[in-house]
Specification:
With 257 residues, the protein is an alpha/beta fold. The chain folds into 2 domains: 210 residues, Rossmann fold (3-Layer(aba) Sandwich); 37 residues, no CATH class. The two termini are 22 Å apart. Bound molecules: S-adenosylmethionine.
């Protein structure tokens, strides 16, 4: 199949056409069973998990032995997905919490939900790409870092000097949702897609878990954030969504680079 292309078709017919062990990195932003749109509705949790495990089985086959997988979902669904991936011999690396500081939900019978989950798994336990220096985060305390720059800080008998590019990336990621960043005169604008993901977040996954020229699978592409960021960062991509209007949007977005 041709790479750097968006395939407008059902996820299962698309996955069946891909070559086994050809993907370096899979970024999967699937339905969550939250009724966000008609594609996000399942009769039961079992139906949802049958759909989910069916595409996951195919993705596992398509990953190279050194490949990595990131999958978004709710915390509840992620617990079941984690269990399933583990049972299939995939290697658990992180439960990443996307903390949506600006999120709004009005729950009065339990704590308000302000997060989504991203599971990070690799096919091999030891041999996989992880470019920790490409995704460093700013240190919190400027003053402490400035003081440490010249003489370092004494830690366990050794002198520690701050890295000029920041600290190693943690598993709690703070990004505002796209819906709340796109405002006009203080009001949120109606979007062409209900659930686009922030570019900064997808870029972090691509930078960490792939190298220039690698092949990134953008499954359930939506507005094509993963395909777009892959192209921007010099990776190849292969993307799929079954909605013609979204596919048109993705092509426009990709061609804008
Ligand atoms: C959560 S959204 C992805 C959003 C995307 N990450 C972004 O940043 O724009 C899920 C997408 O899956 C697509 N989808 C749902 N069921 C599908 C299926 N069976 N085959 C292909 N695409 C499907 C929907 O059209 C929707 O755009």
């Amino acid at each position: 199949m041709e790479v750097n292309k968006i395939y407008c078709e059902d996820v299962f017919s698309f996955l069946d056409k891909l070559e086994t062990a050809s993907i370096d990195l899979a970024i999967i932003d699937p339905p969550y069973n939250l009724n966000r749109d008609q594609w996000d509705v399942f009769k039961t949790v079992d139906d949802f998990m049958t759909f989910t495990t069916k595409y996951l089985d195919k993705v596992i086959d398509l990953l190279k032995p050194t490949g990595s997988l990131y999958i978004f979902n709710t915390a509840f669904n992620s617990a079941m997905i984690l269990n399933y991936l583990h049972s299939k011999g995939m290697h658990y690396k992180n439960w990443i919490t996307w903390y949506k500081k600006d999120g709004f939900s009005a729950c009065r019978k339990r704590f308000c939900n302000n997060q989504e989950t991203i599971l990070f798994f690799t096919k091999s336990d030891k041999v996989f790409t992880f470019n920790c220096d490409d995704i460093r985060m700013p240190y919190l305390s400027d003053a402490r870092i400035k003081a440490a720059q010249s003489k370092g800080i004494l830690k366990n008998g050794k002198r520690w000097f701050p890295n000029p590019n920041g600290k190693l990336c943690t598993d709690v990621w703070e990004f505002p949702s796209v819906r709340l960043t796109n405002k006009k005169n203080g009001k949120t604008i109606k979007q062409k897609h209900p659930t686009p993901k922030p570019e900064g977040m997808i870029e972090r996954m691509i930078l960490a878990s792939s190298n220039s020229g690698d092949l990134v699978l953008d499954l359930f592409s939506g507005t094509g954030t993963t395909a777009y960021c892959s192209k921007k960062l010099g990776r190849n991509f292969i993307a799929c969504d079954n909605n013609k209007d979204y596919c048109k949007l993705i092509n426009e977005r990709i061609n804008s680079i």
